[in-house]
Amino acid sequence: MSSRLEKARQDPGSMKAKILASARKIFGEYGYNDTTTRMIAKDVGIDISTLYYHWGEKQDLYEAVVIEIGEEIQDQLNDIERKVSGRSLTTRLEIALDMMCDYLFAHPEVSNLFLFGYFNKTRHGVALDNKMSEYIANIAVAMDLAQNKKKVSIQAKARILAVWNTVLNFISGESFFRPMLATSHVNYMKVVKETLKFILVPAFTSEKEKLKIE
Questions:
Q1: Where are the alpha helices (DSSP H) in the chain?
Q2: Cα 125 to chain centroid, rounded
Q3: What own/partner pairs with CB < 8 Å and gap ≥ 24 does 196-204 have?
Q4: φ, ψ for residue 34, nearest 5 deg
Q5: Average pLDDT value for residue range 5-23
Q6: Quick one: pLDDT at residue 84?
Q7: How confident is the model at residue 207 (pLDDT cuts 50, 70, 90)?
Q8: What does the pLDDT look like over 166-205, one tens digit per residue?
Q9: What are the residue ranges spanned by the domains of the chain?
């Protein structure tokens, strides 16, 4: 039997899909605690009973959003790994930063949900950061900082987390940072990518041998 998430994916125009899209946006804006099912129902233009019929409780809907985003991120990482294979570390980093920034700028709720998860003391079942260890291992191998996903040095993990959190903050904090730079959204995206490469590429390339497990 198909899950609610699978049914929503199978029919993007369905009520389940519309509710899921609204939930993803509102959870990303307000976080789990400050989001209510009534807010989501109002955004979709339905009554609360219709939302419960299609999705059940808030926890069920939140978990579906988290699962969907987690799978998207994994797809992005797999795509990055395919595209960077066999290239120099500098090129790998540049491609990876471009691709992840493009994905996260296109889906700003993802960065917000990660940051809400970091700083929210109350946990709600499935959480995006539950899979961070797996993401880190994938990135380490893709960047040639580890020979396999089971042997990633703590130094490599910490540096990858530094990159990840820097990207999340640049994107989630755009409304705060961009006015300081007095620039457009399009140019902000460009500047963020350039800045990340300026700082991170030399740092990673100079430290590669220290990070890699022999």
A1: 4-10, 15-30, 37-44, 48-55, 58-84, 89-106, 108-119, 132-142, 154-172, 174-181, 185-211
A2: 18
A3: 196/97, 196/101, 196/163, 196/166, 196/167, 196/170, 197/93, 197/94, 197/97, 200/93, 200/97, 200/163, 200/166, 201/90, 201/93, 201/94, 203/159, 204/89, 204/93, 204/143, 204/145, 204/159
A4: -95, 5
A5: 93
A6: 86
A7: low
A8: 899 999 999 999 999 999 999 999 999 999 999 888 877 7
A9: 1-56, 67-211
Q: How far apart are CA 178 and CA 174, in angstroms?
A: 5
Distance, in Å, from the CA atom of 66 to the CA atom of 91, rounded to the nearest integer, reads: 31
pLDDT at residue number 124: 60
A 10 A CB-CB count for 180 gives: 7
Tokens 């699978």, residue located: 6
Return d(Cα 183, Cα 107) in angstroms, integer.
Answer: 20
CA 89 from centre of chain: 23
Dist CA 204 CA 18 (whole Å): 42
> What is the token pair recorded at 169?
């903050």
Instruction: State the pTM of this model.
Output: 0.85
| Matching residue, tokens 């991170």 | 200
| Residues in Cβ contact with 172 at an 8 Å cutoff, skipping those fewer than 6 apart | 108, 111, 112, 115
Hey, what amino acid is at 47? D
Q: How many residues does the chain have?
A: 214
- Taking domain 1-56, whether its CATH number is 1.10.260.40 is answered by no
**pLDDT tops 50 at residue 214:** no
pLDDT band at 122 (very low <50, low <70, confident <90, very high): low
Quick one: what percent of the chain has pLDDT higher than 70?
91
Residue given tokens 């125009």 in the structure block: 13
